[in-house]
Amino acid sequence: MDLFRKRSINELLQHSQKGNHLKRDLGTWDLTLLGIGAIIGTGIFVLTGEGAVTAGPGLILSFVISAIACGLSALAYAEFAALVPISGSAYTYSYATLGEFIAWIIGWDLVLEYLLAASTVSVGWSGYFQNLLEGLLGWKLPVALTAAPGGETEGALFNLPAFLILMIITFLLSRGISASKRTNNVMVVIKVSVVLLFIFVGINYVKPEHWQPFLPFGASGVMNAAAMVFFAYIGFDAVAAAAEETRNPAKDLPRGLILSLGICTLLYIIVTGIMTGIVPFMDFKGVNHPVSLALQVAGQDWMAGVVDLGAILGMTTVMLVMLYGQTRIFFTMSRDGLLPRRFSSVHPKYQTPFGATWFLGTIGALIGGLVPLDKLAELVNIGTLAAFTLVSIGVLILRKTQPNLKRPFRTPFVPVVPLGAIAFCVFLMSRLKAITWAAFLIWLVIGLIIYFTYSRRNSTLNQD
């Protein structure tokens, strides 16, 4: 039964105050921008094209379905984040409600999700950056340094831009949350401005007849696209990973989670409607820059270049937030003894998990440089959906086992909201490919080996 030993909420809070802890420097506005920084990127600038081919104009409904799954989960996250304002996100919440073994599984799962998400986006960023570099300055990198080996680019050996951008982001994160926060906030404002500019320009070229038929592939197409474009929302839960660095977690975290998700959902719906109104949906097949394509079809080539720049900034903030969330979860697992202690050491000057940041950032950069995009993108969604499911289960368990616990924020309409989140997430997981499940299970087996040979014995809870 020691597999399911738990930390009490009070014990978790006291433990976080001992030894290594992080600087509290984030408010509601910072957390909202952190969430928008994580969400608006590859989803809106790349996946909307593939989603349109799968669902047609009904892709709007696909985004709504994915947003409902995220929104219900966000309410569960908000209750836990306000109750346990500690780094670690779903890992920490699972430790308090479902026990150490389940917490390890979800933590190991999140390590895979965040790291591969950052690497995946770095590859997409590299493509946009190379296009912009060639368009503005006429510069082309040597083919050997433009992509990973084994992909579609013949003669490629290493994706240098993908590697370098993740190393630059690692440097920023290692210097402290304040510097990273300012960088993220500026880039988020710019990329949201670019999205709004697309809306104001593109709406004048919409042809309503392109929305007919609205559901060319029926409900099945909408559901398949929903499982695909769920990637567009991945990362909003990284806001919860910032709990230990938030000034007023009880108020700021719920607001940051819900505001960032709501703003991004609204933008996704409007952009999708305009895109499919300008370009017949089947014309997006094989296109990895659908927003730019819509503007080119509308004859607004100047604006297409601006969108490319917005895409680069958008993906940069996604990588920053993903790697940020990854390092904080790794830090917390190390502090709990489930990973080597060196990963929870805090830099005396910058007050960041310095070693963990450089370790993970370097691995992510190497993966981005050496692994093709299609191999990376398959594993990310399933980890997030599993985390959302476990957090929602945790809310139900804690409401039953500790009903009188003081909760600064309460998930409304329990048990309806958590059960709805579980149902949506499990359904979306069922729509993912078999190869995704197989790779996910292999990663879990590796995690189980580490847990039973190292983590279980060295756990702080076991030492106590």
TrEMBL record:
GO MF term list: amino acid transmembrane transporter activity
UniProtKB keywords: Membrane, Transmembrane, Transmembrane helix, Transport
Protein origin, superkingdom: Bacteria
One Pfam family this sequence matches: AA_permease_2
Main location group: membrane
Coiled-coil annotated residue ranges, if any: none
Matches recorded under Gene3D superfamilies: Amino acid/polyamine transporter I
Localization: Membrane
Topological category with respect to the lipid bilayer: Multi-pass membrane protein
One Gene Ontology cellular component: membrane
Transmembrane segments: 26-47, 59-78, 156-174, 186-205, 217-236, 257-282, 302-325, 352-373, 379-398, 410-429, 435-454
InterPro entries per UniProt: AA/rel_permease1 (IPR002293)
Identification of the protein by name: Basic amino acid/polyamine antiporter, APA family
